[in-house]
Amino acid sequence: MSTKRAVNVRELALCGLFAAIVAVMSLITIPLPGGVPITLQTFAVPFCGYMLGAKRGLWAMLVYEAIGAVGLPVFSGMRGGIAVLAGPTGGFLVGFFAFVLLCGLRTRHRLTALLLGAAGLLLCHAAGCAWYAVAAGTSLISSFMTASLPFLVKDFLSVTAAWVMADICKKRLPI
Length: 175
Prior knowledge:
Layout: H1 9-27, E1 29-30, E2 38-39, H2 41-52, H3 54-69, H4 82-86, H5 90-103, H6 110-136, H7 140-147, H8 152-172
Antiparallel strand pairs: 1-2
Helix pairs in contact: 1-2, 1-3, 2-3, 2-5, 2-8, 3-5, 5-6, 6-7, 6-8
């Protein structure tokens, strides 16, 4: 008797759908002089985690980043390819894995869910700042001032909005 689990088409479809949601939200971009644009990714990534849970959320992020890595223009500014992952904003893309994972830790308590989302956001920003500092050849403080600080309030509001939207959607959708 095999212990392999059959591929669940519904789960695959959900991961693909949420990868597409992150991709679409990434395309809504306001460029800024520092090279880190304002996007709706910080809404889409936690929404993905809150809706799908940790495991499926990670799979959705893997799909999103894989299609971007092979060159499809799904990253911010309609860019794609390994160069984007290796560029100054690549650390944020890597940080999305921790972000979606923490948001995907299912909890019934609103405060716990929001604290996990905030922790995921902070890990994402930490990875993004460190990567930005190396790729741009700047100090960590300069990197933080350029790539993180201007976005923190918007990003924390995005996490909260993602949790609220996910809470509403989960009551109405059989996910």
